[in-house]
Amino acid sequence: MSTTATAIAHPNIALVKYWGKRDAALNLPATGSLSLTLDVYRTRTILTWGAPRDRVVLGGTEASAADAARVLHFLDRVDGDRPPCEVVSENNFPTAAGLASSSSAFAALALAAVAASGQQRSLEEIAVLARRGSGSATRSLWGGWVIWPRGERPDGTDSHGAPLAPEDHWDVRLVVGLVSAGPKPVGSTVGMVHTERTSPLYAGWVESAEADLLVGRQAVVDRDLRALGEIMEHSAYKMHATMLAARPHIRYWRPETIRALEAVESLRKAGVPAYATMDAGPNVKVLCDTADAPAVAEALRGAVGDATILAPGGPAHLLP
Ligand code: PMV
Q1: CB contact at 8 A, 286 and 268
Q2: Which of 15, 111, 183, 258 sits a CA distance of 20 to 30 A from 283?
Q3: What is the reported pTM?
Q4: Before 52, cis peptide (omega within 30)?
Q5: In what order do the strands lie in the sheet with 85-91?
Q6: Distance between CA atoms of 101 and 140, rounded to whole angstroms?
Q7: What pLDDT, on a 0 to 100 scale, did the predictor assign at position 98?
Q8: pLDDT tens-digit profile of 254-271?
Q9: Is the CB of 103 under 6 A from ligand 1?
Q10: pLDDT, tens digit, for every residue of 102-154?
Q11: What CA–CA distance (Å, rounded) separates 16 from 44?
């Protein structure tokens, strides 16, 4: 017998960042993080539980051996005795370019796998499962503003995304300045482990993260763009400083990244509250008021060529 489930999940962008693991095997973070789930961008995953053979199709083509192994290994965690499965997944945005495609990918996969296998699991349990695939995925089960606490338990059952405020809590925009749609040179897990091992700034990064999270959380609750913007830029620059201090260094930025960051500072000098963040890639994402988003997009287009305005998005869900 075979069962098929289709799940949709949106990527999220961290405003207070996760970079570093307290347990690599369980994928437990060294620090808590805060994110915003986005609309428009999405992963759609169709999973057939009980297929003629294991098969993974990503973006319309047969997955590479490494990608297929990562997906199938994830399904083994859902059920160690599972039947062969077929996974057909596609994104409507650039994959693996620091636009958080792994967050929506593993959130959609976890949701589809639990539904197709007929298991009864709470959303929190699905978020713990998603975390094993990719840490940031644990935040994409929810819409809007999401906290992922570090957690205390060694087994990680208390380390998963949790809703802070829904997508309609605060009408802001995240404008993505697209420097490159190509894959990133260093994957996030490799980059994190290397940073932990070799960056002398790593201890300070971990030690100062909890305070950033508290400030960020309160700023979201208060809808205080200046307070959130200030802490989100600080968290992003501090994360990149920590990895720049690794040996050898990890640098995701390109000349256009700096141009975009300068454009954001010019906007602020001109009185437009706009704040930047960068992930494991060269792209720059800018948080601003909805009314200012067209001006922010215009400035980013001047700096990097391409910009997209995104609003807060909803939770991951199953299609009927
Ligand atoms: O969980 P991963 O492997 O997608 O790593 C996420 C790393 C950052 O995007 C840089 C930060 C974050 O909190 O999302």
Answers
A1: no
A2: 111
A3: 0.96
A4: no
A5: 61-62, 55-58, 85-91, 43-49, 3-9, 317-319
A6: 10
A7: 58
A8: 999 999 999 999 999 999
A9: yes
A10: 999 999 999 999 999 999 999 999 999 999 999 999 999 999 999 999 999 99
A11: 26
User: Is 134 within 8 Å of 317 (Cβ atoms)?
Assistant: no
What's the pLDDT at 283?
94
Cα of 51 from ligand 1 centre, angstroms: 32
| CA 237, 241, 243, 249 torsion-angle sign | positive
Cβ–ligand 1 contact at 280 (below 6 Å): yes
- Mean of pLDDT values over 239-253: 98
Per-residue pLDDT tens for 177-221? 999 877 778 999 999 999 999 999 999 999 999 999 999 999 999
Helix (H, G, I), strand (E, B) or coil at 213: helix
The CB of 188 under 6 Å from ligand 1? The reply is: yes
Output the pLDDT for position 245.
Answer: 98
| Probe residue for ligand 1, chosen from 22, 36, 91, 188 as the CB with the greatest number of ligand atoms within 8 Å | 188
Q: Which of 208, 219, 232, 218 has the alpha carbon at shortest distance from 16?
A: 232
Q: Provide the percentage of residues in the chain whose pLDDT is more than 90.
A: 95
Quote the tokens at residue 18: 């996760």
* Contact 12 CB / ligand 1 (< 6 Å): no
Residue 17 Cβ < 6 Å to ligand 1: yes
β-partners of residue 148 are: 33
In whole angstroms, give the CA distance from residue 80 to residue 7.
21
